[in-house]
Structure formats: structure tokens, C-alpha cells
Amino acid sequence: MDAQRIAVAENCLHSAHDGSLSFPEIVGKLLAAGFEGYTVDYRRNTQTHYLPDGDSVAFDMRLSAGKVAATFDTSEVERLVRWAQANPENYSYVAFCEKAKAAGCAGYIVSFLGRRVLYFGRTADTHIEQFPN
């Protein structure tokens, strides 16, 4: 993968954590760079970005507090997504990650092609969110 794409992906990861870019802005930048999606793995603490040709780049994420709970709480994950979408003053991606893990979310897959995010738990329970229009 070329250095420019790697820099875009890494910048988007850091911007999510420091709050300097919103999710729609991050999606726009990653799409413009040619990515088709990415995966967040809270158990390995990594984020992997994928190109259509199968190439990928993985980064370590900043550690967030807590461990992934054993039980996947679909209602809480959905509530957290609504919180993130509303982007209130008290929202941060770091807090989202901590609360998602406490709700049993082991990670999520963002598909730009499918315009959706699939959240999953340790037992492979899932919750799918379509991108807003």
C-alpha cells in the first residue's frame, strides 16, 4: 500500500480519537483514498483498513478502559450508535469505545460498499446499522 493511503488511514484513526473529524468526514476521506471499509477489533485493540484489491493496513488503537463484556447488549449498542450520530457535546469516540466494550461489543466492520456497520460480540451476536441517508 502506498504511503499516502497509509497516512490518510492513520490520520482518520487519530482524528476519531481526538475528535477532530466526525464519522461522516472520516468516511469521506477514506472513500476518497480508495478504501472500501475497515474493521475495529477491541480484543486485539487494532483497526484494519481494506482496499478493493485485497491490500490492507492495520494500526494499533489507543487503549480504552475496560474489557469486552461476555454478553452482547444489542439495545445498548444501538443506543450508543444513536448517541454517536447525535454527536452531543459530551460525545467522544474514546467514551464510545469504552461503553461499547462494556455492552459486549468485541468490534465492528464498516462496509462503505454495503453502507452499513456490523457490530459483533464475543459469541458472534450481531447488530447491523445502515448508514444514515
Brief digest:
The protein has 133 residues and is α+β, with helices and mostly antiparallel strands. It is built from 4 helices and 6 strands; from the N terminus they run H-H-E-E-E-H-H-E-E-E.
Descriptive keywords:
133 residues, alpha+beta, six-stranded antiparallel beta sheet, 4 helices, 6 strands, 37% helix, globular
Describe the structure.
A hairpin with a 4-residue loop joins strand 1 (37-41) and strand 2 (46-50). The protein is an alpha+beta fold. Helix 1 (3-18) runs antiparallel to helix 2 (23-32). Strands 3-2-1-4-5-6 form a 6-stranded antiparallel β-sheet. The protein has helices at residues 3-18, 23-32, 74-86, 93-102; strands spanning 37-41, 46-50, 56-60, 105-111, 116-121, 126-130.
User: What is the average per-residue confidence, as pLDDT, rounded to a whole number?
Assistant: 94
Q: Tell me the number of helical segments per DSSP (H or I, 4 or more residues long).
A: 4
The profile of the biggest β sheet is: 6 strands, antiparallel
Spatial ordering of strands, largest sheet? 3-2-1-4-5-6
What is the H/E order?
HHEEEHHEEE
Morphology call: globular
According to DSSP, the number of beta strands is 6
Strand coverage percent: 15-25%
Please write out the topology.
Blueprint: H1 3-18, H2 23-32, E1 37-41, E2 46-50, E3 56-60, H3 74-86, H4 93-102, E4 105-111, E5 116-121, E6 126-130
Antiparallel strand pairs: 1-2, 1-4, 2-3, 4-5, 5-6
Helix pairs in contact: 1-2, 3-4
